Amino acid sequence: MSQRLYYDDAYTTRFEARIVERLDVRGQPGIILDRTYFYPDSGGQPADTGQIGGADLVALRIRESDAAIIHVLSHAPPGDQVQCQIDWTRRFDHMQHHTGQHILTQAFVRVAGANTVGFHLSPDSVTIDLDQLGITDAVVRQAEELANQIVIENRPVTARLIQPDEAARVRIRKAPDHLATQGLRVIDIQDYDLTACGGTHVARTGEIGLIKILRLEKRGDRTRVEFRCGWRALRDYQAKHAIVAQLVSDLTCGVSELPEAVSRLQQERRAAQRTIKMLRERLIDEEAQRLLNSAHPEGSVRWIEAVFTNRDPGEIRLLGARLTRSAQVLALLATSGDKAHLVLARSADLDLDLNSALKAALAALGGGKGGGPPDMVQGGGIPADEEKVAAALRAARASLLHPR
Ligand SMILES: [Zn+2]
Questions:
Q1: Which of 181, 223, 143, 183 is nearest to 66 (CA)?
Q2: Strand order in the sheet with 222-229
Q3: CA of residue 181 to ligand 1 center, whole Å
Q4: Rounded to whole angstroms, how far apart are CA atoms 132 and 112?
Q5: How far is the C-alpha of 37 from the C-alpha of 322, rounded, in Å?
Q6: What is the pLDDT of residues 39-92, one digit of tens each?
Q7: Is residue 215 a contact partner of residue 223, using CB atoms and an 8 Å limit?
Q8: Are 359 and 370 in contact (CB under 8 A)?
């Protein structure tokens, strides 16, 4: 079994090792080294990436039979003595977040008696799951402040092995899920937290930088806490600051005045919508009056036919309703477009079968669905040009003049 050197030293990123075994991992070359600083995917911390003997490290696996670490590579290195390089930016990000997680987990225990039952770390998000619901904003703030206090105090973080009989005497927050070779590996954040863990950590809490909680999410009977540490927290601050600066410039106000400025915009928008609605109704009323004036009488009934281009069906419906408020009016309205729409409406005092007329109109249109109450029916929904919808209205008219 290869020596896992990252247990005692998380800071070595370049080292030399000897290939002691070569194997095939589903068509890709795998090697086992006599010693390795590469961290395999374990305990919520993702595996390292890097290079070995000029080849890219694709994946790290732990062999079940003997717990050997298999390094899966892009291609097999020629010699047995290889230079290894760990991607330090990625590893240090993991160390900041992993140690930050220990601190935040302990902070929630102390502030709210909430235990961490899950940890997730990926390039996009970092979360812990707490075994409680109803975590208040005040608790979040207290936990965040305690966590950052521990960071600012720059406490030493050490890893050591303790014997199983000693484990019973030492306060260990998280139950161990695996034992190291010569005992139980615990991570000690001085006078603050002691946790059984096999991951990589920073040497002093100050290296973590800012610990910032971003949001809470209810997940069944658990609370998921999303947070960021160090460089990621700074990137998040930079991105959000840029957004705020843009908004402040766009709205020409101070940062603290942003909520009020947005609320004022929303009020103005609602008022503008009310005005538009009122003006639109007024325009429809005037349009209805013009159409009524130009209606051609068939006996005592005033017939109105109108074809529009790409008009909003809601507006045509409104127009039909306005027209047929007057007595003895029949309105046959239609719009062309990708979704042609027909509206047939009559005054309440007329006894005409609009549903049959709509059926005839849709047949002339060549398809579409529709229906409605006795005094207003509508339908369509298929593409049709002005000629086509005019023909549909003629079919409706014929059906009304000569009912079968
Ligand atoms: Zn850890």
A1: 181
A2: 116-121, 126-130, 222-229, 211-219
A3: 17
A4: 9
A5: 80
A6: 998 777 889 999 999 999 999 998 888 889 999 999 999 999 999 999 999 999
A7: no
A8: no
Domains within the chain, CATH numbers bracketed = 3-86 (2.40.30.130), 91-242 (3.30.980.10), 292-401 (3.10.310.40)
Cα-to-centroid distance, 160 and ligand 1 (Å): 12
Query: Which tokens is 360 given?
Result: 């005839």
pLDDT digits (tens, 9 = 90+) for 80-127: 999 999 999 999 999 999 999 999 999 999 999 999 999 999 988 999
Q: How far apart are the first and last CA of the chain?
A: 93
Spacing, Cα 106 to ligand 1 middle (Å): 12
Could you say which DSSP state residue 204 is in?
Answer: B
How far is the centre of ligand 1, averaged over its atoms, from the C-alpha of 39 (Å)?
Answer: 12
pLDDT at 179: 47
Rounded to the nearest angstrom, the distance between the alpha carbon of 36 and the centre of ligand 1 is 19
C-alpha–C-alpha distance, residues 149 and 141, integer Å? 12
pLDDT score recorded for residue 8: 85
Measured CA to CA, the distance from residue 245 to residue 251 in angstroms comes to 10
The 10s digit of each residue's pLDDT in 204-263 is 999 999 999 999 999 999 999 999 999 999 999 999 999 999 999 999 999 999 999 999
> Cα of 75 to ligand 1 centre, how many Å?
32
SS3 347: coil
Distances (CA, A) of 164 to 23, 62, 161, 178, 301: 35, 24, 9, 12, 99
> In which element (H, E) is residue 287 found?
helix 258-293
